[in-house]
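QA checklist item 7 of 12: single-chain prediction sanity check.
[x] sequence parsed
[x] length recorded as 454
[x] structure emitted
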Amino acid sequence: MTPAVRPVLAALLAGIALAACSRQPPAAAAHPPAVVTVAKPLVKRIVEWDRYTGRLAAVESVEVRARVSGYLASTHFSEGQEVERGQVLAVIDPRPFQLAVDQARARVEEARAETRRVRANVEQAEAAARRSEALAALATRQLERAKTAAETNAIAREQVDVRESEVVQARAAVESARAAVASAVADATHAEAAVTTAEATLAIAELDLSYTRVTAPISGRISRRFVTKGNLVEGGNVASTLLTTIVSLDPIHVYFDANEQAFLKYVRLANAGRRRSSREAKNPLFLQLVDEIGYPHRGHMDFVDNQVDANTGTMRGRGILRNPDGLLTPGLFARVFIPGGEPRDAVMIPDEAVLANQAQRFVYVIGAENLPEIRPIELGPIIDGLRVVRSGLAAEDRVVIAGTQWIRPGAPVAPQPGEIVAKPSADALPDHYEPVPEAEWIQARPAAAPEEGR
Protein backbone atom coordinates (compact mmCIF):
# COMPACT_ATOMS: atom_id res chain seq x y z
CA MET A 1 0.00 0.00 0.00
CA THR A 2 1.37 3.39 -1.04
CA PRO A 3 1.70 6.26 1.38
CA ALA A 4 -0.93 8.21 -0.57
CA VAL A 5 -3.65 5.51 -0.04
CA ARG A 6 -3.23 5.11 3.74
CA PRO A 7 -4.83 8.45 4.81
CA VAL A 8 -7.84 7.78 2.59
CA LEU A 9 -8.40 4.29 4.07
CA ALA A 10 -8.19 5.57 7.65
CA ALA A 11 -10.76 8.26 6.98
CA LEU A 12 -13.12 5.67 5.44
CA LEU A 13 -12.92 3.36 8.50
CA ALA A 14 -13.56 6.24 10.90
CA GLY A 15 -16.72 7.16 8.98
CA ILE A 16 -18.08 3.60 9.13
CA ALA A 17 -17.53 3.40 12.91
CA LEU A 18 -19.27 6.75 13.48
CA ALA A 19 -22.28 5.63 11.43
CA ALA A 20 -22.60 2.38 13.43
CA CYS A 21 -22.55 4.24 16.75
CA SER A 22 -25.27 6.59 15.57
CA ARG A 23 -27.64 3.59 14.89
CA GLN A 24 -27.51 2.09 18.52
CA PRO A 25 -30.69 2.88 20.73
CA PRO A 26 -30.34 4.49 24.15
CA ALA A 27 -30.04 2.10 27.15
CA ALA A 28 -33.21 3.37 28.76
CA ALA A 29 -35.28 2.66 25.66
CA ALA A 30 -34.09 -1.02 25.56
CA HIS A 31 -35.84 -2.04 28.92
CA PRO A 32 -39.19 -0.34 29.54
CA PRO A 33 -40.86 -0.85 32.98
CA ALA A 34 -42.63 -4.21 33.37
CA VAL A 35 -46.43 -3.99 33.49
CA VAL A 36 -47.86 -5.78 36.59
CA THR A 37 -51.30 -5.96 38.18
CA VAL A 38 -51.46 -4.66 41.75
CA ALA A 39 -54.23 -4.86 44.38
CA LYS A 40 -54.68 -4.47 48.11
CA PRO A 41 -55.32 -7.68 50.07
CA LEU A 42 -58.94 -8.61 50.76
CA VAL A 43 -59.85 -8.45 54.45
CA LYS A 44 -62.64 -10.90 55.30
CA ARG A 45 -64.20 -12.42 58.41
CA ILE A 46 -63.30 -16.13 58.50
CA VAL A 47 -62.92 -19.18 60.69
CA GLU A 48 -59.91 -21.41 60.14
CA TRP A 49 -61.13 -25.01 60.22
CA ASP A 50 -58.51 -27.56 61.21
CA ARG A 51 -58.54 -30.71 59.12
CA TYR A 52 -57.92 -34.23 60.42
CA THR A 53 -58.21 -37.74 59.08
CA GLY A 54 -60.72 -39.68 61.12
CA ARG A 55 -62.20 -43.15 61.19
CA LEU A 56 -65.88 -43.87 61.69
CA ALA A 57 -66.86 -46.21 64.51
CA ALA A 58 -70.18 -47.52 65.80
CA VAL A 59 -71.57 -45.98 68.97
CA GLU A 60 -72.63 -49.46 70.08
CA SER A 61 -70.86 -52.62 69.01
CA VAL A 62 -71.82 -56.04 70.37
CA GLU A 63 -70.33 -59.49 70.01
CA VAL A 64 -73.26 -61.88 70.13
CA ARG A 65 -72.17 -64.93 72.13
CA ALA A 66 -73.97 -67.91 73.60
CA ARG A 67 -74.69 -67.72 77.32
CA VAL A 68 -75.43 -71.43 77.69
CA SER A 69 -73.75 -74.44 76.13
CA GLY A 70 -75.56 -76.70 73.71
CA TYR A 71 -76.13 -77.57 70.08
CA LEU A 72 -77.14 -74.73 67.78
CA ALA A 73 -80.63 -75.64 66.58
CA SER A 74 -81.32 -72.74 64.20
CA THR A 75 -80.49 -69.17 63.21
CA HIS A 76 -83.04 -66.49 62.35
CA PHE A 77 -81.39 -63.52 60.64
CA SER A 78 -80.28 -62.43 57.19
CA GLU A 79 -76.57 -61.81 57.02
CA GLY A 80 -75.55 -58.18 56.61
CA GLN A 81 -79.06 -56.83 57.21
CA GLU A 82 -80.45 -54.59 59.93
CA VAL A 83 -81.95 -56.18 63.03
CA GLU A 84 -84.03 -54.77 65.87
CA ARG A 85 -83.27 -55.03 69.54
CA GLY A 86 -84.97 -58.11 71.01
CA GLN A 87 -85.16 -59.93 67.69
CA VAL A 88 -84.42 -63.66 67.94
CA LEU A 89 -81.13 -64.41 66.20
CA ALA A 90 -80.46 -68.04 67.09
CA VAL A 91 -81.89 -70.92 69.10
CA ILE A 92 -79.85 -73.42 71.08
CA ASP A 93 -81.49 -76.85 71.58
CA PRO A 94 -83.83 -76.10 74.52
CA ARG A 95 -84.81 -79.69 75.45
CA PRO A 96 -82.15 -80.31 78.14
CA PHE A 97 -82.93 -76.95 79.68
CA GLN A 98 -86.69 -77.59 79.61
CA LEU A 99 -86.10 -80.86 81.48
CA ALA A 100 -84.02 -78.98 84.05
CA VAL A 101 -86.89 -76.51 84.48
CA ASP A 102 -89.40 -79.33 84.96
CA GLN A 103 -87.15 -81.00 87.51
CA ALA A 104 -86.60 -77.75 89.40
CA ARG A 105 -90.34 -77.04 89.37
CA ALA A 106 -91.03 -80.50 90.84
CA ARG A 107 -88.49 -79.84 93.58
CA VAL A 108 -90.22 -76.59 94.38
CA GLU A 109 -93.55 -78.37 94.75
CA GLU A 110 -91.91 -81.02 96.89
CA ALA A 111 -90.32 -78.39 99.13
CA ARG A 112 -93.61 -76.54 99.45
CA ALA A 113 -95.41 -79.75 100.41
CA GLU A 114 -92.76 -80.46 103.04
CA THR A 115 -93.21 -76.93 104.31
CA ARG A 116 -96.95 -77.46 104.69
CA ARG A 117 -96.35 -80.70 106.58
CA VAL A 118 -93.85 -79.09 108.93
CA ARG A 119 -96.15 -76.15 109.56
CA ALA A 120 -98.87 -78.63 110.55
CA ASN A 121 -96.41 -80.22 112.98
CA VAL A 122 -95.71 -76.77 114.42
CA GLU A 123 -99.41 -76.21 114.98
CA GLN A 124 -99.75 -79.65 116.56
CA ALA A 125 -96.76 -79.02 118.85
CA GLU A 126 -98.15 -75.63 119.85
CA ALA A 127 -101.50 -77.24 120.67
CA ALA A 128 -99.75 -79.89 122.79
CA ALA A 129 -97.82 -77.17 124.54
CA ARG A 130 -100.99 -75.28 125.35
CA ARG A 131 -102.58 -78.48 126.73
CA SER A 132 -99.50 -79.14 128.87
CA GLU A 133 -99.58 -75.60 130.19
CA ALA A 134 -103.28 -75.98 131.06
CA LEU A 135 -102.61 -79.26 132.91
CA ALA A 136 -99.71 -77.64 134.74
CA ALA A 137 -101.93 -74.75 135.82
CA LEU A 138 -104.59 -77.23 137.04
CA ALA A 139 -102.02 -79.23 138.97
CA THR A 140 -100.73 -76.02 140.57
CA ARG A 141 -104.24 -75.02 141.72
CA GLN A 142 -104.91 -78.52 143.07
CA LEU A 143 -101.64 -78.39 145.02
CA GLU A 144 -102.62 -75.06 146.57
CA ARG A 145 -106.02 -76.43 147.64
CA ALA A 146 -104.37 -79.56 149.02
CA LYS A 147 -101.98 -77.49 151.11
CA THR A 148 -104.88 -75.43 152.49
CA ALA A 149 -106.79 -78.58 153.39
CA ALA A 150 -103.71 -80.16 154.96
CA GLU A 151 -103.38 -77.20 157.33
CA THR A 152 -106.81 -78.12 158.86
CA ASN A 153 -106.05 -81.82 158.71
CA ALA A 154 -108.83 -82.25 156.11
CA ILE A 155 -106.63 -84.49 154.00
CA ALA A 156 -103.58 -86.57 154.66
CA ARG A 157 -100.10 -85.26 154.13
CA GLU A 158 -99.53 -87.92 151.51
CA GLN A 159 -102.15 -86.24 149.31
CA VAL A 160 -100.11 -83.03 149.32
CA ASP A 161 -97.03 -84.94 148.22
CA VAL A 162 -99.01 -86.50 145.37
CA ARG A 163 -100.20 -83.05 144.25
CA GLU A 164 -96.65 -81.71 144.36
CA SER A 165 -95.46 -84.62 142.21
CA GLU A 166 -98.23 -83.95 139.71
CA VAL A 167 -97.17 -80.30 139.48
CA VAL A 168 -93.55 -81.28 138.79
CA GLN A 169 -94.66 -83.73 136.11
CA ALA A 170 -96.92 -81.14 134.51
CA ARG A 171 -94.15 -78.54 134.38
CA ALA A 172 -91.82 -81.10 132.82
CA ALA A 173 -94.49 -81.85 130.24
CA VAL A 174 -94.74 -78.12 129.49
CA GLU A 175 -91.00 -77.84 128.92
CA SER A 176 -91.07 -80.90 126.69
CA ALA A 177 -93.96 -79.44 124.68
CA ARG A 178 -92.17 -76.13 124.31
CA ALA A 179 -89.06 -77.96 123.08
CA ALA A 180 -91.22 -79.82 120.58
CA VAL A 181 -92.61 -76.50 119.37
CA ALA A 182 -89.11 -75.07 118.97
CA SER A 183 -88.03 -78.16 117.04
CA ALA A 184 -91.09 -77.95 114.80
CA VAL A 185 -90.43 -74.23 114.15
CA ALA A 186 -86.81 -75.02 113.24
CA ASP A 187 -88.04 -77.71 110.85
CA ALA A 188 -90.42 -75.18 109.34
CA THR A 189 -87.62 -72.64 108.89
CA HIS A 190 -85.49 -75.30 107.23
CA ALA A 191 -88.39 -76.27 104.97
CA GLU A 192 -89.00 -72.64 104.00
CA ALA A 193 -85.29 -72.25 103.20
CA ALA A 194 -85.52 -75.37 101.10
CA VAL A 195 -88.43 -73.79 99.24
CA THR A 196 -86.37 -70.64 98.63
CA THR A 197 -83.45 -72.74 97.38
CA ALA A 198 -85.71 -74.75 95.12
CA GLU A 199 -87.33 -71.59 93.75
CA ALA A 200 -83.89 -70.09 93.09
CA THR A 201 -82.85 -73.27 91.30
CA LEU A 202 -86.04 -73.04 89.25
CA ALA A 203 -85.34 -69.38 88.40
CA ILE A 204 -81.81 -70.29 87.24
CA ALA A 205 -83.17 -73.15 85.15
CA GLU A 206 -85.79 -70.86 83.60
CA LEU A 207 -83.13 -68.23 82.93
CA ASP A 208 -80.91 -70.79 81.25
CA LEU A 209 -83.90 -71.90 79.20
CA SER A 210 -84.53 -68.31 78.12
CA TYR A 211 -80.87 -68.03 77.12
CA THR A 212 -81.41 -70.74 74.52
CA ARG A 213 -83.17 -67.99 72.50
CA VAL A 214 -80.32 -65.64 71.60
CA THR A 215 -81.75 -62.18 70.93
CA ALA A 216 -80.25 -58.94 69.62
CA PRO A 217 -79.17 -56.67 72.50
CA ILE A 218 -79.11 -53.59 70.23
CA SER A 219 -80.56 -52.44 66.93
CA GLY A 220 -78.13 -52.19 64.04
CA ARG A 221 -76.53 -54.05 61.17
CA ILE A 222 -75.61 -57.67 61.75
CA SER A 223 -72.58 -59.48 60.38
CA ARG A 224 -72.39 -62.98 58.91
CA ARG A 225 -72.99 -66.28 60.70
CA PHE A 226 -69.82 -67.44 62.40
CA VAL A 227 -71.40 -70.77 63.45
CA THR A 228 -73.83 -72.87 61.45
CA LYS A 229 -76.68 -75.10 62.60
CA GLY A 230 -75.71 -78.35 64.29
CA ASN A 231 -72.49 -77.18 65.88
CA LEU A 232 -71.86 -77.41 69.61
CA VAL A 233 -71.45 -73.94 71.09
CA GLU A 234 -69.83 -73.06 74.39
CA GLY A 235 -71.53 -70.50 76.61
CA GLY A 236 -71.38 -68.78 79.95
CA ASN A 237 -67.61 -68.20 80.19
CA VAL A 238 -64.75 -66.19 78.70
CA ALA A 239 -64.42 -68.73 75.90
CA SER A 240 -68.07 -68.48 74.85
CA THR A 241 -68.66 -69.11 71.17
CA LEU A 242 -68.98 -66.00 69.01
CA LEU A 243 -72.12 -66.31 66.89
CA THR A 244 -72.05 -62.95 65.07
CA THR A 245 -71.60 -59.20 65.69
CA ILE A 246 -73.91 -56.18 65.53
CA VAL A 247 -72.99 -52.52 65.11
CA SER A 248 -75.35 -49.59 65.55
CA LEU A 249 -75.66 -47.14 62.66
CA ASP A 250 -77.46 -44.02 63.86
CA PRO A 251 -75.90 -42.03 65.42
CA ILE A 252 -72.25 -42.79 64.64
CA HIS A 253 -68.89 -41.74 66.08
CA VAL A 254 -65.79 -40.49 64.32
CA TYR A 255 -62.39 -40.71 66.03
CA PHE A 256 -59.35 -38.62 65.10
CA ASP A 257 -55.97 -37.73 66.59
CA ALA A 258 -54.48 -34.24 67.03
CA ASN A 259 -50.74 -33.78 67.48
CA GLU A 260 -49.22 -32.08 70.50
CA GLN A 261 -48.87 -28.72 68.74
CA ALA A 262 -52.55 -28.61 67.81
CA PHE A 263 -53.60 -29.79 71.27
CA LEU A 264 -51.54 -27.08 72.96
CA LYS A 265 -53.03 -24.51 70.59
CA TYR A 266 -56.55 -25.46 71.65
CA VAL A 267 -55.61 -25.36 75.34
CA ARG A 268 -54.06 -21.91 75.05
CA LEU A 269 -57.03 -20.58 73.08
CA ALA A 270 -59.39 -21.91 75.74
CA ASN A 271 -57.32 -20.39 78.55
CA ALA A 272 -57.36 -17.05 76.73
CA GLY A 273 -61.14 -17.22 76.25
CA ARG A 274 -60.83 -17.24 72.45
CA ARG A 275 -62.21 -20.73 71.84
CA ARG A 276 -64.16 -22.93 74.24
CA SER A 277 -62.65 -26.33 74.92
CA SER A 278 -64.43 -29.27 73.35
CA ARG A 279 -64.41 -30.87 76.80
CA GLU A 280 -66.78 -28.15 78.02
CA ALA A 281 -68.70 -27.21 74.86
CA LYS A 282 -70.14 -29.19 71.97
CA ASN A 283 -68.09 -27.49 69.25
CA PRO A 284 -69.41 -28.16 65.73
CA LEU A 285 -67.76 -30.73 63.50
CA PHE A 286 -68.02 -31.24 59.73
CA LEU A 287 -67.25 -34.49 57.95
CA GLN A 288 -66.51 -35.31 54.33
CA LEU A 289 -66.16 -38.77 52.81
CA VAL A 290 -63.45 -39.48 50.28
CA ASP A 291 -65.77 -39.18 47.26
CA GLU A 292 -67.76 -36.16 48.42
CA ILE A 293 -67.57 -32.50 47.44
CA GLY A 294 -68.40 -30.09 50.21
CA TYR A 295 -69.13 -30.96 53.80
CA PRO A 296 -72.59 -32.55 53.92
CA HIS A 297 -72.30 -34.22 57.33
CA ARG A 298 -72.47 -32.08 60.46
CA GLY A 299 -72.20 -33.16 64.08
CA HIS A 300 -70.40 -32.02 67.18
CA MET A 301 -67.58 -33.00 69.49
CA ASP A 302 -68.58 -35.23 72.40
CA PHE A 303 -65.29 -36.50 73.86
CA VAL A 304 -61.63 -35.57 74.30
CA ASP A 305 -59.31 -38.08 75.93
CA ASN A 306 -57.71 -37.42 79.31
CA GLN A 307 -54.06 -37.84 78.29
CA VAL A 308 -51.70 -37.71 75.35
CA ASP A 309 -50.81 -41.09 73.92
CA ALA A 310 -47.21 -41.74 74.90
CA ASN A 311 -46.61 -43.92 71.83
CA THR A 312 -47.92 -41.55 69.16
CA GLY A 313 -47.72 -38.16 70.88
CA THR A 314 -51.33 -37.43 69.92
CA MET A 315 -54.55 -36.57 71.74
CA ARG A 316 -57.64 -38.49 70.68
CA GLY A 317 -60.90 -36.68 70.05
CA ARG A 318 -64.31 -37.95 69.06
CA GLY A 319 -67.33 -36.50 67.32
CA ILE A 320 -70.86 -37.77 66.91
CA LEU A 321 -73.08 -37.40 63.85
CA ARG A 322 -76.56 -38.41 62.78
CA ASN A 323 -76.68 -41.15 60.15
CA PRO A 324 -80.32 -41.69 59.16
CA ASP A 325 -79.53 -43.15 55.73
CA GLY A 326 -76.71 -45.41 56.94
CA LEU A 327 -74.20 -43.93 54.50
CA LEU A 328 -71.61 -43.42 57.24
CA THR A 329 -70.33 -46.94 57.77
CA PRO A 330 -68.13 -48.02 60.70
CA GLY A 331 -64.52 -48.41 59.59
CA LEU A 332 -64.57 -45.79 56.81
CA PHE A 333 -61.94 -43.06 56.72
CA ALA A 334 -63.21 -39.49 56.52
CA ARG A 335 -61.98 -35.91 56.55
CA VAL A 336 -62.91 -34.16 59.77
CA PHE A 337 -63.02 -30.39 60.24
CA ILE A 338 -63.25 -28.61 63.59
CA PRO A 339 -62.88 -24.89 64.37
CA GLY A 340 -59.23 -23.99 64.89
CA GLY A 341 -59.93 -20.65 66.54
CA GLU A 342 -62.42 -17.84 66.95
CA PRO A 343 -63.84 -15.90 63.96
CA ARG A 344 -61.40 -13.16 62.91
CA ASP A 345 -60.61 -10.67 60.13
CA ALA A 346 -58.05 -12.28 57.83
CA VAL A 347 -55.83 -10.88 55.07
CA MET A 348 -56.39 -12.87 51.86
CA ILE A 349 -54.70 -12.87 48.43
CA PRO A 350 -54.81 -15.07 45.32
CA ASP A 351 -52.70 -18.15 45.67
CA GLU A 352 -51.07 -17.32 42.30
CA ALA A 353 -49.44 -14.24 43.85
CA VAL A 354 -47.44 -16.40 46.28
CA LEU A 355 -43.89 -17.25 45.18
CA ALA A 356 -41.40 -19.64 46.72
CA ASN A 357 -37.70 -19.44 47.46
CA GLN A 358 -36.87 -22.91 48.70
CA ALA A 359 -38.85 -23.25 51.95
CA GLN A 360 -39.71 -19.56 52.19
CA ARG A 361 -42.92 -18.10 50.78
CA PHE A 362 -43.07 -14.46 49.66
CA VAL A 363 -44.95 -11.92 47.58
CA TYR A 364 -43.94 -8.76 45.75
CA VAL A 365 -45.12 -5.54 47.37
CA ILE A 366 -44.86 -2.25 45.44
CA GLY A 367 -42.96 0.36 47.42
CA ALA A 368 -41.79 3.90 46.78
CA GLU A 369 -41.04 4.88 43.19
CA ASN A 370 -42.84 1.73 42.03
CA LEU A 371 -39.97 -0.48 43.10
CA PRO A 372 -41.05 -4.08 43.95
CA GLU A 373 -40.02 -5.42 47.36
CA ILE A 374 -39.83 -9.03 48.46
CA ARG A 375 -42.12 -9.60 51.48
CA PRO A 376 -41.84 -12.96 53.34
CA ILE A 377 -45.23 -14.20 54.57
CA GLU A 378 -46.76 -17.00 56.64
CA LEU A 379 -49.55 -18.80 54.86
CA GLY A 380 -52.81 -20.22 56.10
CA PRO A 381 -55.46 -22.31 54.36
CA ILE A 382 -57.34 -21.51 51.16
CA ILE A 383 -60.81 -20.13 51.90
CA ASP A 384 -63.31 -18.99 49.26
CA GLY A 385 -60.65 -19.42 46.57
CA LEU A 386 -58.12 -17.13 48.31
CA ARG A 387 -55.04 -17.87 50.38
CA VAL A 388 -55.09 -16.69 53.99
CA VAL A 389 -51.95 -14.79 55.02
CA ARG A 390 -51.40 -15.16 58.75
CA SER A 391 -48.50 -12.70 58.97
CA GLY A 392 -46.30 -10.52 56.76
CA LEU A 393 -48.95 -8.43 54.99
CA ALA A 394 -51.07 -5.46 55.99
CA ALA A 395 -54.41 -4.41 54.58
CA GLU A 396 -52.85 -1.32 52.93
CA ASP A 397 -50.00 -3.10 51.13
CA ARG A 398 -50.06 -3.13 47.34
CA VAL A 399 -49.43 -6.72 46.28
CA VAL A 400 -48.48 -7.85 42.79
CA ILE A 401 -51.17 -10.36 41.83
CA ALA A 402 -50.23 -10.81 38.14
CA GLY A 403 -47.09 -10.28 36.02
CA THR A 404 -44.58 -11.36 38.67
CA GLN A 405 -42.56 -13.16 35.98
CA TRP A 406 -41.57 -9.81 34.40
CA ILE A 407 -40.20 -8.25 37.59
CA ARG A 408 -36.41 -7.64 37.60
CA PRO A 409 -34.56 -6.91 40.86
CA GLY A 410 -34.00 -3.19 41.35
CA ALA A 411 -36.03 -2.19 38.30
CA PRO A 412 -39.22 -0.14 38.69
CA VAL A 413 -42.51 -1.50 37.34
CA ALA A 414 -45.60 -0.03 35.79
CA PRO A 415 -48.42 -1.05 38.23
CA GLN A 416 -51.94 -1.45 36.91
CA PRO A 417 -54.89 -1.49 39.34
CA GLY A 418 -56.57 -4.85 39.96
CA GLU A 419 -59.10 -6.34 42.38
CA ILE A 420 -59.11 -9.35 44.65
CA VAL A 421 -62.51 -11.05 44.78
CA ALA A 422 -63.51 -13.99 47.00
CA LYS A 423 -65.45 -16.82 45.37
CA PRO A 424 -67.45 -18.48 48.14
CA SER A 425 -69.33 -21.66 47.25
CA ALA A 426 -72.60 -22.91 48.64
CA ASP A 427 -70.95 -26.01 50.14
CA ALA A 428 -68.02 -24.17 51.77
CA LEU A 429 -67.35 -24.28 55.48
CA PRO A 430 -69.05 -21.42 57.36
CA ASP A 431 -67.16 -18.27 58.33
CA HIS A 432 -68.59 -18.28 61.85
CA TYR A 433 -69.66 -20.84 64.43
CA GLU A 434 -71.19 -21.25 67.87
CA PRO A 435 -71.12 -24.26 70.19
CA VAL A 436 -74.10 -26.52 69.51
CA PRO A 437 -76.95 -25.72 71.94
CA GLU A 438 -78.11 -28.43 74.30
CA ALA A 439 -81.43 -28.83 72.49
CA GLU A 440 -79.50 -29.98 69.39
CA TRP A 441 -77.08 -32.37 71.08
CA ILE A 442 -76.92 -35.82 69.51
CA GLN A 443 -77.33 -38.43 72.20
CA ALA A 444 -75.87 -41.90 71.93
CA ARG A 445 -78.44 -44.50 72.86
CA PRO A 446 -77.52 -46.39 76.05
CA ALA A 447 -76.72 -50.06 75.75
CA ALA A 448 -79.58 -52.45 76.46
CA ALA A 449 -79.96 -53.87 79.98
CA PRO A 450 -79.21 -57.61 80.29
CA GLU A 451 -82.89 -58.50 80.69
CA GLU A 452 -83.77 -56.60 77.52
CA GLY A 453 -81.46 -58.46 75.19
CA ARG A 454 -79.10 -61.39 75.32
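[x] summary fact logged: The two ends are 125 Å apart (CA to CA).
[ ] second reviewer sign-off
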